[in-house]
Design a protein that fits this description.
Helix 1 packs across helix 4 and helix 3 crosses helix 4. With 132 residues, this protein is of the alpha+beta class. A five-stranded antiparallel β-sheet has the order 1-2-3-4-5. A hairpin with a 5-residue loop joins strand 4 and strand 5. Bound molecules: zinc ion (ZN). The site of zinc ion has 8 residues, from loops. Zinc ion (ZN) binds next to loops.
């Protein structure tokens, strides 16, 4: 399993435009400073899925999901974090060196991803400041 540094993650994230990545999956409509669309993570008729290009974040006010471009492709495509990194890096034309994790790094990353992941949905109220 490859391992990526914070710098590599940041590079992939900053060079992947969240609007064009999500726009491939969701029909987005420009509204003011952001974009809205039908949430791909729950069934809805009103558009409560918001993408904020300034912050490079997305947020659904219907089901509470939210995150950045990497968490979007992970959740939508059901990818692991390294798989999402590879996919976005390839699309952005970034050459990611493959590195193998030590057992300790692997454990730490899995722990980080789990806590980050569940942390998002456990506190939908904390995301209310998203657009403020
Ligand atoms: Zn939703």
């Amino acid at each position: 399993m490859p391992w990526y540094s914070e710098e590599q993650i940041e590079e992939v994230r900053s060079r992947s435009d969240i609007v064009s990545v999500i726009g491939r999956y969701v029909r987005l409509k420009r509204t003011g400073s952001g974009y809205t669309g039908l949430c791909p993570f729950h069934n809805e008729k009103t558009q409560s899925f918001h993408v904020n290009p300034a912050r490079q974040m997305y947020k659904c006010f219907g089901c509470g999901v939210g995150g950045n471009v990497l968490t979007f492709v992970m959740e939508y495509e059901n990818l692991t974090f390294p798989e999402a990194m590879e996919m976005l890096a390839e699309q952005a034309g970034i050459d990611l060196p493959k590195q193998e994790m030590t057992a300790q790094q692997k454990q730490q990353t899995q722990h980080d991803q789990r806590t980050k992941h569940t942390g998002q949905n456990d506190h939908p109220a904390s995301s209310l400041h998203f657009f403020l």
